[in-house]
Design goal:
Shape: globular
InterPro entries: Auxin_biosynth/cation_transpt, FAD/NAD-bd_sf
Number of helices: 8
Largest sheet: 7 strands, mixed
Keywords: Oxidoreductase
Radius of gyration: 21 Å
Order of helices and strands: EHEHHEEEEEEEHEEEEHEHEEEEEEHEH
CATH superfamily of the largest domain: FAD/NAD(P)-binding domain
Pfam families: Pyr_redox_3
Distance between the termini: 39 Å
Structural class: alpha/beta
Strand content: 25-35%
CATH class of the largest domain: Alpha Beta
Number of domains: 2
Protein name: Putative flavoprotein involved in K+ transport
Organism: Echinicola vietnamensis (strain DSM 17526 / LMG 23754 / KMM 6221)
Helix content: 10-25%
Number of strands: 21
Length: 347
């Protein structure tokens, strides 16, 4: 039985306790504002902790730090996903941020001039809402997957090679997650790799320095992205022996159809597989926002730098929201500072 608590009133509700939500919380705390952070996960950091086991960030520790608390790692070391998750948990505890875990937001609507935020356990009346729950909410899987009779998963469900069945496996997707998962699997399975275009490969290190170090040195990380750059596929960043491992996968062009255990490619060739893994990314999901006039369009919100046309509603974690690094922890916290300032000055 769910026990409902009487409606509470608060100035700010932040949805999501990831890098953007925690950063926004810190800036509101510094300004002595009244706020809470709602997160659907069991613990702070679980959005990273629940990703595949071999995941390491591209960003060195120096570029993964949130405001006013360093990571307990050498600045040049790239954290594992568990190290980052533990750091986020430590961050929330260290600054005593009011994070309410296991509390999923089910709906946001208007209540007069304020917002009504309905969650798993309570209803909250808030003057302003900052949506910072990230993009890993709704996995994108192509429609042709419905025609498969063989098992398949999305990369968001992948943890270790034990997650995969059979012997001959197709990986679909041309991004960094696809490449890192392929590196996990090539020692155990016959891997085929389907991409729409040939992936661009780029070294993560240049002259012994991480590319983010160079980006900061030449002031590129803080600059807005050019419109022609937005929407283009990110290169696959090479580190350690990644290039050697992904070369073991047999390259395939774009998939144009499927049926049973067969997949047809754009070159009209057909292959049989025992398992498919989709590393095809995520789409935004704002279905919980039930407000007349809300854009419900991530691209429009990006162009508005995360400021909705609905007064008092703000967004964080949108790629290229304000800079080339908005999708990174480094840029996300700068976006959080901007949104908090905008929200506070809107009174």
């Amino acid at each position: 039985m769910i026990l409902w608590i009487s409606m509470k009133e608060i100035d700010y509700v932040i949805i999501g306790a990831g890098q953007c939500g925690l950063s926004a919380g810190m800036y509101l705390q510094k300004a002595k504002e009244d706020f809470i952070i709602l997160d659907q996960h069991l613990e702070v950091g679980d959005s990273w902790r629940n990703r595949f086991e071999s995941l390491k960030l591209f960003s060195p520790a120096a570029y993964c730090q949130l405001p006013d608390l360093k990571m307990a790692l050498p600045s040049s070391v790239r954290p594992t996903k568990n190290q980052l998750a533990d750091y986020f948990s430590r961050y929330a505890s260290h600054f005593d941020l009011p994070v309410h875990t296991k509390n999923r937001v089910t709906e946001i609507s208007k209540l007069g001039e304020a917002f009504l935020v309905k969650t798993t356990f309570e209803e909250i009346k808030a003057k302003k809402v900052i949506v910072a729950n990230g993009l890993c909410q709704k996995p994108f899987i192509p429609e042709w997957a419905d025609n498969l009779s063989i098992p398949y998963i999305h990369s968001g469900q992948y943890r270790t090679p034990i997650s995969v069945k059979g012997k001959k496996v197709l990986i679909v997707g041309g991004g960094n997650s696809a490449a890192q998962i392929i590196a996990d699997l090539t020692n155990y399975f016959e891997i085929h790799w389907s991409t729409i275009k040939k992936p661009k490969l780029r070294s993560l290190s240049v002259f012994g320095k991480n590319i983010l170090w160079w980006g900061e040195k030449f002031n590129k990380l803080k600059k807005p992205a050019k419109e022609k750059r937005i929407g283009k596929a990110e290169p696959i960043y090479l580190f350690d022996d990644l290039k050697k491992k992904i070369k073991k996968a047999k390259r395939q062009p774009e998939v144009i159809g499927a049926g049973s255990n067969q997949v047809t490619f754009s070159n009209q060739k057909t292959e049989q597989y025992e398992f498919v893994l989709f590393a095809t990314g995520f789409t935004s999901d704002y279905s919980f926002i039930n407000i007349e006039g809300f854009e419900n369009d991530m691209e429009m919100l990006r162009k508005q730098q995360g400021v909705s046309s609905v007064s008092g509603l703000y967004f964080l974690g949108i790629p290229f929201q304000r800079s080339r690094s908005s999708h990174l922890i480094y840029g996300g916290q700068r976006d959080a500072a901007f949104i908090v300032e905008i929200a506070r000055n809107a009174d």
